[in-house]
Amino acid sequence: MATHILFESASGYAIFEVKLKEEVGTFTRAMQDSTQDLAKFGKMVSLVSFSPFKSAADALENANDISEGIVSEDLKSLLELNLSKPSKKSSIVLGVSEPILGSSIKSALGISCDTSESTVELMRGIRLHASKLLKGLQSDDLTKAQLGLGHSYSRSKLKFNVNRIDNMIIQAIALLDQLDKDVNLFSMRIREWYGYHFPELIKIVPDNYQYARVAQFIGPKESLTEEKLPDLAALLDDDTTRAQNVLDAANGSMGSSLSEIDMLNISAFAARVVSIAEYRKSLTSYLSEKMNLVAPSLTALLGERIGARLISHAGSLTNLSKYPASTVQILGAEKALFRALKTKGNTPKYGLIYHSSFIGRAAPKHKGRISRFLANKCSIASRIDCFSDTPTAKFGDALRQQVEERLNFFETGAPPSKNADAIRKVLDQLAVEEEEGQGVDMADAEEPALPLLEAETPKKHKKKRKSHAMDVDEEEGESVKKVKLSKEEKKALKKEKKKKEHKAKEVTEDEPSKKEKKEKKEKKEKRKEKEPVNRDDSWCAAHSTLKAGYDSILNHLETPPTQDLKNFLGYCEAWASAIVEHHDSEGDGSAQRHSRRARRLPRVAQSRQGRVCKFDVAKLKEMMVALRGPLYEHLDEEVADIAPDTMRVFEEPELLAMDAALQKYAQSHGDPFLLVPFMMSHTLPEYKGIWPPDMPWLLRKLVISYVLALRHPGYWKYSPYGMS
Fold it and tell me: Which parts of this chain are annotated as the region Disordered (predicted)?
């Protein structure tokens, strides 16, 4: 029996010690009565420790971990603190409500867990009296926590289906199939109903949609005159001959006459059929657009309707992509498959893909082979659509061309292309398009953002080609005859491969020398920039970043981003931190003679940073406007103090000592994940390259822009300049 009980509530974790062990009478009436009575139950268990959750988000995270049987860090620390004593560890048995969680605790901490019925009974009593057993909690607090956690937990579980846009396809194709049945059924009904009055119209207008529109337009056949012929011809695709035939048939019709109430009902029903048919057309266009967005390759291969039916039958595009080609081939023919397995007959050759034009065009003896090949391509297309970052229809077009070649092979014997070659061509086209797009962006930019990464893009595509090259069909190996090469041709191919490898090695040997030359030039330019004469420019750049951040915050306060408050307030914190760190550096010995004037300014920035979590637009704007005077005055005074004329008073050793103090302070203070990206994203274009000073090119271009900034990617969209 359990010696301790782990109780998970909406407010936190609690550990109770079991005092009275009544395992024999667990299900007796007396035991149940004692569980209901707090005075008796309080003698059975006692609270050992209670660890409340820090926030609602923390409670939701722990609830998700418990549902998945994961031991969270909070639970692990609580159990280690209270139950992991060496002397009592062997005798401790922890009662938990979930067997999966118990096994996880056993494997992680070595504590034995119990999920017996006696533990469940004790857990029920603790849950009943939790508000009184847990000290410091009230009944209302626990109820509110349970309500909030229940809503957030349900919302987090529902979020898994929010981005499943293939659900729209499943519903659309189901509704479209139902509308097809309804339109056919209602059209037959309107033909029979209106045919009593005008039976000759059925032969002249055989189309269901046109028949319903014409019946609604004509109404009583006696009302049709020559004046209505132009409008009637418009309903019949501007066919005046058919319109005249309808008029002649109406004048000599053998149908019976109808009353006004009968004609009103027929006209209303015809209008309903017309509206359903028009909605069916709009739904068809919607399904086509959705399929081209979600599964463009599958759409290009099979079409919108068949591809949507496959997704609907599988349940989702992800499920369809996980099916093997043999399963895709017989999707929709499950009844025939099970009947064949039961009777030991022939299994079906195709399911939903039977409606594809490829199987209809194939000869009867080749239908099974082409269906197997088509299912293989459908499986490839669905996986490309499901797992690619940017789905494109080019893969579907290439796969469709392969099916066309396979049909031609069955008829003429011409060998089709291999799957690896077709996929490689598409990858080459996409690589060329990406390079062209990058070329346009690089031409517009003042400076290349990451020239070191340009040589890595073709390597990525080569890896993709290798992975796709392994995806060769067994169907191709069986049906296509291998072309045997002579010994001379094989030798020639080997020589060409050796030449290509030799050229590639020469290129790779030449590349480092070019890079070394570029790096030497950059080092020379940086050495020139490191001269103490130009230190005033880099120091002025630091002041300009603070002004740029102030202007950006004030501009965004005119129309506050209420939908993105977290990132905007984080950006404001970064600005305040930059001010505090900047003025702390002044008191570190680098610029002491004007740091006394700025004693009040860091306090304002710190108070600004402390109030950032309470977003009041009016107060924040008022405080920012009041801060502008002392901030700009102080920064302008600093710029005057570090102007070239003022700095010429100092000798070169003093300037170098100032710069060394600044660099030492920058390396030992501040949060580089917040402060450095802020300074980089607010540097004026004219100061690009000289700020921050003494920073390696790789650090400035790669680490800061692509590593440090990723810690807070949403902050820097509010900065006036981009990082480069």
Answer: 451-537
